[in-house]
């Protein structure tokens, strides 16, 4: 595992009232987390990393016989180019859901680029899916973090995120998917990458299936 933070000053209250208010906030946060796909909800929960829903880092690999149908997707990149699943057909594809103000997205950006550089001469494609920003913000991010693969700007209709959500849960930002050469979800990384080696191994495994 699509922005500015806001904090509210606390008023003084008796200890019992403060305890009750704290409990209410915890209940509200839990309820909001259950519907974290809503950008406003994500903003509330995230603080300075608006839209980031904190959770345990997890890597899930899906056996070939348990993978669903190929995911068909289409969108327009930050440079205004159309990009679809037809353009990456036959490749192992890494799909990263991100946006510029997401702290974990910034931290993992060099690792994503590192793995892309490692495999860019193989039958591998990388595609970012920006779930919050407009094109200019995405291009500024790419320049700052030296990202050379394209990102689809998905904020307007969320069509790409919806296409993948039909195949696998997209509950947090960042989320990174590895698609096999048939376009099926082969692995899912939830949360910030903890080093490039994990993603590199997942890509190598998917490539080995086509050998």
Q: Order the strands across the largest sheet as they lie in space.
A: 1-8-7-4-5-6
Query: The biggest beta sheet, please?
Result: 6 strands, mixed
Q: Which radius of gyration do the C-alpha atoms yield?
A: 18 Å
β-strand percent reads 15-25%
Protein name: TlpA disulfide reductase family protein
Organism: Microbacterium betulae
Signal peptide: 1-36
Main location: other
Secondary-structure blueprint of this entry?
Blueprint: H1 15-33, H2 39-46, E1 58-61, E2 74-76, E3 82-84, E4 92-98, H3 103-119, E5 124-130, H4 135-145, E6 151-153, H5 159-165, E7 175-179, E8 185-190, H6 196-209
Parallel strand pairs: 4-5, 5-6
Antiparallel strand pairs: 1-8, 2-3, 4-7, 7-8
Helix pairs in contact: 3-6
Care to describe what's here?
- With 211 residues, this protein is of the alpha/beta class.
- It has a single domain, classed as 3-Layer(aba) Sandwich (Glutaredoxin).
- The chain is built from 6 helices and 8 strands, in the order ααββββαβαβαββα.
- A 6-stranded mixed beta sheet has the order 1-8-7-4-5-6, covered by helices on one side.
- A hairpin with a 5-residue loop joins strand 7 and strand 8.
- Helix 3 packs across helix 6.
- The longest helix has 19 residues.
- It is globular and about 40 Å long.
- The protein starts with 14 loop residues before the first helix and ends with a helix.
- The N terminus is likely disordered.
- It is found in: Cell envelope.
- Pfam families: Redoxin (PF08534).
- One of its GO terms (molecular function) is oxidoreductase activity.
- This is TlpA disulfide reductase family protein.
- One of its GO terms (biological process) is cytochrome complex assembly.
């Amino acid at each position: 595992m699509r922005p500015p933070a806001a904090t509210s000053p606390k008023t003084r209250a008796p200890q019992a009232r403060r305890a009750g208010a704290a409990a209410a906030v915890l209940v509200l946060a839990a309820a909001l987390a259950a519907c974290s796909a809503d950008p406003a909800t994500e903003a509330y929960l995230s603080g300075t990393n608006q839209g980031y829903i904190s959770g345990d880092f997890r890597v899930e690999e899906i056996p070939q016989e348990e993978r669903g149908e190929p995911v068909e997707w289409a969108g327009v990149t930050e440079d205004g180019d159309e990009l679809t699943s037809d353009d990456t057909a036959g490749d192992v594809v890494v799909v990263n859901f991100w946006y510029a103000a997401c702290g974990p997205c910034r931290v993992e950006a060099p690792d994503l680029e590192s793995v892309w550089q490692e495999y860019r001469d193989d039958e591998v494609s990388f595609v970012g899916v920006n779930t919050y920003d407009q094109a200019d913000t995405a291009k500024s991010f790419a320049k700052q973090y030296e990202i050379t693969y394209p990102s689809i700007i998905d904020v307007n209709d969320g069509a790409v995120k919806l296409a993948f959500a039909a195949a696998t849960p997209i509950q947090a930002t960042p989320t990174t998917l590895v698609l096999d050469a048939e376009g099926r979800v082969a692995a899912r990384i939830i949360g910030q990458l903890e080093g490039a080696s994990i993603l590199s191994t997942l890509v190598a495994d998917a490539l080995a299936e086509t050998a």
